[in-house]
Amino acid sequence: MADSSKACVIFWSTLLLASTVAALWPAFPSDMGASSSSESKQSSQRRRLLQAGFGAGGEVSETCTCTSEFQGVDSRSRENENSIQDLRSAVNSLKDTVNKMKKSVGSGKGVASAQSYNIAFSARVGYNRPYLGETEVIVFDELVINNGDVYDPYSGKFTSPVPGLYHFETTILSGFNATIETMLVLNGNEVGRVFSGGFNNRGSGSNSVLLNMEAGDEVWVSVFFGNGDYVHGLWSTWTGYMVYPFSV
Ligand SMILES: *[C@@H]1O[C@H](CO)[C@@H](O)[C@H](O)[C@H]1NC(C)=O
């Protein structure tokens, strides 16, 4: 029984080896041994596929190179797009600034923003102003300077062309043996008082004020108290100028 069982094992092992060799045979290159013409064809096809996939000059390698070049171009184009975006926002910011400057110029009496510092006027009363009523505006009709055309010598009012810090000062000489009280006025609100008067003589008083003003705000001098008193001509003055403009 043991001998027949051994022979059985040898038989089956031989059969398994033979079938394995038969199965693997087409994978061997054709020059390794004798083979039919169809087996030779299959083998050379395999070789060509291997060369195409992993060879240095194969089609797949060329595709890889092309893809990486495309990625380079793509990232450069994205960089350019970002640069264009940066330029666009810079241009928009400049446009905003120019528009603000235009508005600032437009709100005044033709005063350019670059000339904002050159806002100044100086005027005086050309002749005696008697019988002034209470709160009546004192018109300093005689112009000395009017840089930026900011003072109206007919109404006696200053109008600020641009937002900024402004300085004003007035000196009022009273009539003989009389007193007059006046005030500095911003948009109808008193912001400073002046007393002028003398006993058996004339007397002058003055005051000044610093104001934060918006474009279009008005400042003038008016009578505060003293119906019938008068402001002396030529000795009474009214001046104002911009100290510096606020940002446009
Ligand atoms: C000044 O006014 C006072 C008070 O009214 C008066 O007494 C005096 O005579 C006046 N002086 C002159 C020079 O008119």
UniProtKB/TrEMBL annotation:
Q: Which UniProt keywords apply?
A: Secreted, Signal
Record bears the keyword Signal: yes
Superkingdom as given in the UniProt entry: Eukaryota
Endpoints of the signal sequence:
1-23
Report the residue ranges that make up the C1q domain in this protein.
Answer: 114-248
The entry's cellular-component GO terms read: extracellular region
Q: What is this protein called?
A: C1q domain-containing protein
Species assigned in the record:
Littorina saxatilis
Cellular localization per UniProt: Secreted
